[in-house]
Write a structure and sequence with these properties.
single chain, mainly beta, Beta-galactosidase, Chain A, domain 5, five-stranded antiparallel beta sheet, 25 strands
């Protein structure tokens, strides 16, 4: 396998994965030119922070103080604001002695950057192992209490980037519940069972089989763009999802220590973006598996907390494991 990383945004620009016949193809959407990323894009392959996903009305209350963030997604805050971690320049070091090939990216987010309290020192390690795994280790410390929810926003197409849609990919998500959303894609605070709904991926289903069902949650999001509540031990590195593409034989398994998984089917892509090899990225030509805490957790006391306090260490791990069936 090969993984190429851009210091701007910590972007995974290229990721080749093995197929059934020994062929390696690039399976992440993006651009050939680094300059094209600087011109703006829908978070292709980027590191997301301080807070992945949405925060209602761009504000939250913490320890009696109200903090206001950018409203860069309608009335809501999305993926860290106007200049989130996807747009900053990360310092990159190669690591020797790791069981594979590794890069460590680091960044210091200043106090009140994008409205967030406290200085946040962040490091993210990409490790490509000899077992065809891309392991991502996130670490952060702060000098003031602040919400933190880091993730990766890679768009995958296991048939190869630019290869039509992902609707025939077969998905399993190891979750019995999800967090329903309103028209702004903000969770209501409820946790609903997936049983009897198109959100149930506990058994393998083609992504396109139910994505356009008249189920209200799918209509609100224009497809899948929801957080699944994973059936796993808190903090344990366990499987969250498995995706298979039958024509190439490629399989992707996702393991994480996080409690949630945002499954997004690229509904917002519309063919206007031309990516690598001048391929047109049409609606649902990629899917995202964003390991995370739940959206809007700073405003939802019933959700697992995303508040990092001084003296604590934020540490999470996600593994993308590739294989050929």
């Amino acid at each position: 396998m090969e993984v190429c990383v851009v210091s701007l945004g910590g972007i995974i620009q290229k990721l080749t994965a093995p197929g059934r016949n020994g062929q390696y193809d690039d399976v992440v959407l993006g651009f050939d030119s680094v300059n094209r990323y600087a011109a703006g894009h829908p978070y292709f392959g980027a590191l997301i922070g301080r807070y992945g996903n949405r925060i209602r009305s761009g504000q939250f209350l913490l320890d009696g103080s109200e903090y206001r963030l950018a409203s860069n997604d309608g009335d809501n805050h999305l993926h860290g604001g106007y200049r989130g971690f996807d747009k900053v320049d990360w310092h990159v070091d190669s690591l020797a002695g790791e069981p594979g090939t590794a890069l460590r990216l680091s960044y210091v987010s200043a106090d009140v950057e994008e409205g967030y309290p406290g200085r946040l020192d962040v490091s993210v390690t990409y490790l490509l192992t000899d077992a065809d795994e891309l392991r991502i280790d996130y670490r952060a410390v702060t000098d003031k209490s602040t919400p933190v929810n880091l993730t990766s926003h890679a768009y995958f197409n296991l048939a190869g980037q630019g290869a039509d849609t992902v609707l025939d990919h077969v998905a399993e998500i190891y979750a019995s519940h999800f967090t329903p959303v309103d028209e702004g894609l903000i969770p209501s605070g409820s946790i609903w069972p997936v049983a009897g709904t198109p959100m149930d991926f506990r058994a393998p289903n083609a992504i396109g089989e139910r994505v356009d069902d008249p189920y209200e949650q799918l209509q609100l999001a224009g497809g899948y763009d929801h957080n699944w509540v994973l059936d796993k031990e808190p903090g344990a590195l366990e499987i969250a999802a498995r995706i298979q593409e039958l024509s190439s034989g490629r399989q992707l398994e996702v393991y994480t220590t996080e409690p949630g998984l945002q499954f997004y089917t690229g509904n917002g892509l519309d063919g206007s973006i031309r990516g690598k090899q001048d391929r047109s990225y049409v609606s649902r030509s990629g899917f995202c598996l964003e390991t995370q805490h739940y959206p809007d957790s700073p405003n939802q006391p019933g959700f697992p907390s995303t508040i990092l306090r001084p003296g604590e260490v934020y540490e999470t791990t996600t593994v993308y494991r590739f294989s050929a069936m």
